[in-house]
Amino acid sequence: MTRHPGKLGSKKSIVSIGLIGILLVVGVWGVLGGTFRGVNANNASQASTSGIALTAPVSPNIAVDYTSPIRKLDPIAIGMDVSAYGYPNVFANDQVEQQKLKTLVIKYMRMALKYSTTGDPTSKIVCDANGCDTRWTGDQWINAIKGIGAEPVVKVYTKSSVDAANMVKHFNKDTNNYIKYWIVGNEPNINGYSVQSYSSYFNQDYDAMKAVDPTIKIGGGTTAWYDQYWLQQFLQLSGTRVDFVDFHGYAQQGTVPGNYTTLFEKARYDNSINQLRSLIQNIVPARASQIGIEVGEWELNWGGTAQDNINFHAVWAASALGHILSSGGWSLFYADKGNAIYANLHTFTDPYGHVVNINPDDTDAAYHGIGMFTGEGLFRGFGDTIVNASTTLPNVEVYASDNPQNIVVINKDPSITQTATVSLNGVTSGTVEVMRKDESVLFPNPPIKLGILPLQNGTFTYQLTPFSVTTFVLNTDPSQTSPTLSPSPSVTLSPTLSPSPSVTPSPTLSPSPSVTPSPTPGATLAQDTFHRANQTHWGIASDGQIWSGDANSSQVFSIAGNGGQLANGNTSYSAVLGPTATNAQVLFSGSMSSFNNTNLGAVLRWTNGNNWYKAYIDGTNLVVQKRVNGVYTILKQVPFAATAGTSYTLLFSAVGSTLSAKVWQTGTPEPGTWMVTATDSTFQAGYCGLRILVQNGAVAQITAFTALAQ
Questions:
Q1: Boundary residue ending a domain (327, 346, 374)
Q2: Which of 24, 360, 488, 626 could form a disulfide with 41 if both were Cys (CB 3.0 to 4.6 A apart)?
Q3: In the predicted model, what is the mean pLDDT of residues 212-224?
Q4: Domain range spanning residue 211?
């Protein structure tokens, strides 16, 4: 978004807390995790481990599986936009800011550049934002980005393919100041462009820029919010070209405090990423695995909110970043000066009456929310591989990594301290360093180290204070090894690189996905009890994996009454969960309110909505069917009378070329033999899931789902 510096400047002051450590010495950490809602003035001190650790765990409520890697993160997945504001000290010349962003381990930075005279490639390249600091050349901005170890992504003007191509030539050919990532335009959906005109300009820019250097990656879309219809049309018009799709999102506008629950829901950028990935797969399936997704701007508000200058901002930012990373997106926090780093002098009074003096280049609360993942120079940062992690605690999120092993736990509840009992699979012994950012720490101050816990028998217990982000840094026995994932392909911004790509809600489209490594026979690939709060979409399954296909993009899907529901539909819908597999079976229980041109079934070797095997009941028959490139073929069927509103359990198996199915009323004995068996070798591997035809007012209710390797 092209910002006006007045708004951005008025939003923040800049943090100088030199006095605060002397000013506020609050002496008492509550027993069991420091529940006192004040300020721990000595951020460098370590709290006594005996005062924070609890006794032996009772029943685990957080599970982390280090034997189940989900995805490999790109090294530049955590990024930030350059605002180009903060005169006279902006990112290009502010060495203090540069060092703080380097310490934060920011690896990807967007910079808007233009020729000072449109159409004249000999004119000075300057920043392209309303009121930005044009004293500095494009090369100075780019060199500052590279100087902190980050990869630049340059935004170019939409309407001039000549200028766009000349800028690529300047950096990549004439000066050898190579830039790999480029993006066309900024928020065209609110800046006077129709999607048709923007896409036409994008295609012209793309072709001209690639003609200069075909090795670059060019992104587009850049909508001011997740404008699904707009992005869908953009993909239809430019999907054969675009290398990554970008959208922006801010939780609120203005200075009126927002509802905490609503704001945390708006931090769920993963929902939009999942929906966008589904669009990409449906519209350009041949290129889907090559098109990345980035949230190109995200924050509570680009111009300031009433809740920026409190600890909640750190908790919210950590939640937002966790959702982006876990869904395979790239993150560009908006922005450096004015949001992560204060630009002006200010004095704030926090909710507890503490006076906080802010100086230019002091850090904002959101800086530390990001820092709870990166370590911000205080502790070892998040690893390069996300592993399966789940929790049954309300208002708690958990994100876990391997290589190295860190666990980030977020308590979003503003008033309740919760006891976390963590169970680790694949790790048994070692120590756990505990870092926390919560209400006991002044909002612009960094997290504090609370102590080191022993890790015994793969478990430990700890208290999560209200509105807190706690990072557990695991130091384990080197002999305890975890599975490794393949390196990230350079062609995609959001790779699906694991034996369990289920966290990517829209699997890579190919007629027969490869399975590397093959799941162990008998291993549980995916499982969902659907026992969670009512919500739109199916979200995260009880095993911690994210539902894919249509389950997190179509409004037909919801969680209602501890069941997965499909209602108000008018076609067939897919829901897939877990990694790809060759030989597998799906077992599910569910009911259909009406068998009137509807059916209820499981899918195996699913690659997209047009390619799968399915076993289903339609009220009259049990059917085994395949769909190949959109063409349906019934492989075999047997009579089976199903009653509307009655729960049935269906088991569908694929081993080699043999497809088998059986069905029975839930709660009655399972048939001893397969009721229908067919042979087909069209598909060798794919995802496990459900495919349900709901229309004519019918409602489908799913109460249990399990996928097993065979």
A1: 374
A2: 24
A3: 97
A4: 72-374
Q: Terminal CA-to-CA distance of the chain, rounded, Å? A: 51
**Residue 114 and residue 196 in one domain:** yes
Give domain status of residue 522, yes or no: yes
- 597 in the same domain as 691: yes
Of the three residues 374, 405, 438, the one that is the final residue of a domain is 374
Could you give the number of structural domains in the chain? 3
Helix axes 365-374, 312-326, angle to 10 degrees: 40
Please state the rounded mean pLDDT for residues 590-611. Answer: 95
**Residue 385 and residue 426 in contact, taking contact as beta carbons nearer than 8 Å:** no
Residues 367 and 391 reside in one and the same domain: no
d(CA 357, CA 604): 60
Chain mean pLDDT for the chain: 86
User: Does the structure show a pLDDT above 70 at 429?
Assistant: yes
CA distance 205 to 241: 11
pTM for this prediction: 0.64
Ramachandran angles phi, psi of 551, nearest 5°:
-65, -20
Rounded Cα distance, 589 and 504, in Å: 24
- State phi, psi for 647 to the nearest 5 degrees: -80, 135
What pLDDT score was predicted for residue 22?
Answer: 29
Residue 546, φ and ψ in degrees, nearest 5: -100, 130
95's CB contacts (< 8 A; 6+ apart) are none
Residue 482 in domain: no
Q: Where are the alpha helices (DSSP H) in 95-137?
A: 95-103
Mean pLDDT for 312-321 is: 97
